[in-house]
TrEMBL record:
It comes from Ornithinimicrobium cerasi. It comes from the Bacteria. Residues 1-22 are annotated as: Disordered. This is Uncharacterized protein.
Length: 66
């Protein structure tokens, strides 16, 4: 696998090459810690509640007879 292909596996929307390589070097435990911190931040910012409400509205729209 070429470097470009490897980098593509780790690419986000605005990642630089160095950010991609740094993330690729993290351990699974470090990735889980980062994920937990990200989810806690999203929860504190209200993003999770907004997303749950959006999904609930969608589910209700799909379930309602037309």
């Amino acid at each position: 696998m070429s470097t470009t292909e490897t980098d593509d596996l780790w690419r986000g929307t605005s990642d630089t090459g160095s950010a991609i390589r740094a993330r690729a070097r993290t351990t699974p435990a470090q990735r889980l810690e980062w994920l937990e911190e990200s989810l806690l931040l999203a929860q504190a910012a209200g993003a999770l509640a907004r997303d749950r409400a959006r999904r609930q509205r969608q589910a209700e729209e799909w379930a309602s007879p037309r």
